[in-house]
Design brief:
Elements lengths: L2 E7 L3 E10 L2 E11 L2 E4 L2 E4 L1 H14 L5 E5 L5 E4 L17 H11 L2 H8 L8 H11 L1 H6 L2 E4 H10 L13
Parallel strand pairs: 1-6
Antiparallel strand pairs: 1-2, 2-3, 4-5, 7-8
């Protein structure tokens, strides 16, 4: 029997669900549930990346008989990878209030209506563009070291496989 494992990642919890066909019926079984929190670090709010990736890896090992894995998560947050393939720092949480710095920087360069016309995204301080501008202002050294930006599900994929990809559907959230 073929089984698939899906990780459903929300802002406060992650679920691992195994799906399979049994007697012609699609069945699901929750195999993992984890609460997670954002953490304060150096005056910023970051995800507990080691805890998140560790629990996902553990769940995969416990369900080694699956034939495919899917990952979905909240949007806008990302990790930065340097040229050597290292994660530069734990991903910031969209709840970090410092992103207002990025929004003010963007507002000084482009009108919100123009930004909306170009991106189609609702204008919110949590948007990836504002996160990047805040990072460039507050941590230019980290910004300059970044070789790749991977959205959260793509970052997990990278940690699991070593492949850097940008799955297109998550980009609609940026």
């Amino acid at each position: 029997m073929k089984k698939v494992l899906a990780f459903d990642m929300g802002a406060t919890s992650i679920r691992g669900i195994v799906g399979f066909l049994e007697n012609g019926q699609f069945c699901t079984q929750e195999v993992m549930r984890m609460n997670h929190k954002i953490q304060g670090k150096n005056g910023r709010l970051v995800w507990d990346w080691d805890g998140i990736i560790g629990k996902i890896e553990e769940t995969i090992l416990e369900n080694a008989d699956v034939s495919a894995i899917g990952i979905d998560s909240w949007g806008v947050d990302f990790g930065l990878i340097d040229q050597e393939g290292n994660l530069l720092q734990a991903p910031f949480s969209y709840r970090d209030e410092k992103f207002i710095i990025g929004r003010k920087e963007a507002d000084s360069r482009i009108e919100e209506a123009t930004l909306f016309q170009n991106s189609g995204n609702q204008i919110m301080t949590i948007n990836t563009v504002y996160q990047l501008l805040a990072l460039k202002t507050l941590q230019p050294d980290v910004y300059e070291k970044a070789d790749k930006l991977l959205m959260i599900p793509d970052l997990i994929y990278y940690f699991l496989t070593g492949e850097k990809i940008g799955e297109e559907s998550i980009w609609s959230t940026t």
